Amino acid sequence: SERLSRREDHSKIGVSFEFFPPKTAEAEVSLWASIGKLLPLAPRFVSVTYGAGGSTRERTHQTVTRLVRETETPPAAHLTCVAATREEIDDVARAYWEAGVRHIVALRGDPPAGIGAHYEPHPGGYAYSNDLVAGLKDIAGFEVSVAAYPEKHPESPSIDADIDALKAKVDAGADRAITQFFFDNDTYERYVERVRKAGIEIPIVPGIVPVHSFKAVSNFASRAGASVPAWLAQRFDGLEDDPATRQLVASAVAAEQVLDLVDRGITDFHFYTMNRADLVYAICHLLGLRPKVEEAA
Ligand code: FAD
């Protein structure tokens, strides 16, 4: 079969990295240092998030277009439906196309009041991400990635309703789904089985978050509807004042998760880098990825 295992040749492994646009000059320097460390690993693409309510529109655009100008790696720009008319969003997309960007991560976005607040489509805007996917495909031949939720989106009444929402995005032309992060690989595997039964054939790429800070990740997870298993909390228990050990534990946790997914036949991974190279670089190394000298130069 096509199945790999962690001990075999890893040439089929493909990774992508997600960054957020920097707020300060200092954060920008550190982001580009991380990009400089990770890009020689030859990711399939790198993506740049779009702040809630379009708040980072300019900064996302600047980061993505700098990637186009200064690197060989194809960038993907995240784009959301919230707080903008169709025309405004179409203009942003067209500007990306003109700048040479060929890949958009199309999202609904969260309500301006934050995750969990009631979502109301903008009058004159794209209502849901499936509408945005269709709009983008009308504008130009973008490659479009969308979000998927192995534990369902917090607003979905059930996993089936959530898979229907994913199906609508696929029917609108989505080429790939990237998942919300998760820690239980069985949950992901069961979800992918249900997605396939629903007739969805696009890749469902696992989104992996390295646990730089257990507290920050568990806070975000509870808002985003991702569960944090008790065993994970236990692994970080007692390390609040010991950053060096926390880092070692975080790399062990991520390595365990990713190598187990490889054993289950997964070859593509999307990393939520939090703009840091360290843990992600180490995990990619374990996956068999080595820097390409041309990119490094
Ligand atoms: P959708 O797929 O549109 O759906 C969300 C929910 O709305 C569905 O689960 C369903 O309950 C309901 N729904 C969907 N379609 C319909 C319909 N036709 N009629 C009625 N109800 C419907 N947020 C940002 O602001 N910026 C980012 O850069 C960003 N990047 C992300 C990257 C990834 C990989 C992921 C997983 C999430 C990201 N998010 C980002 C978060 C995302 O915007 C939120 O999770 C948001 O709440 C849902 O977006 P979506 O595209 O998944 O929504």
Automatic annotation (TrEMBL):
Keyword Repeat found: no
Residues making up the signal peptide according to the UniProt record: none
InterPro entries in alphabetical order: FAD-linked_oxidoreductase-like (IPR029041), Mehydrof_redctse-like (IPR003171), MTHF_reductase_bac (IPR004620)
Encoding gene, per UniProt annotation: metF
Catalytic function, reaction form: (6S)-5-methyl-5,6,7,8-tetrahydrofolate + NAD(+) = (6R)-5,10-methylene-5,6,7,8-tetrahydrofolate + NADH + H(+)
One Pfam family here: MTHFR
Pathway: One-carbon metabolism; tetrahydrofolate interconversion; Amino-acid biosynthesis; L-methionine biosynthesis via de novo pathway
Descriptive protein name: Methylenetetrahydrofolate reductase
Cofactor(s) this protein cannot do without: FAD
Molecular function GO labels: methylenetetrahydrofolate reductase [NAD(P)H] activity
Entry EC number(s): 1.5.1.54
PANTHER family: METHYLENETETRAHYDROFOLATE REDUCTASE, METHYLENETETRAHYDROFOLATE REDUCTASE (NADPH)
Family label: Belongs to the methylenetetrahydrofolate reductase family.
Keywords: Amino-acid biosynthesis, FAD, Flavoprotein, Methionine biosynthesis, NAD, Oxidoreductase
SUPFAM superfamilies: FAD-linked oxidoreductase
NCBIfam families linked: fadh2
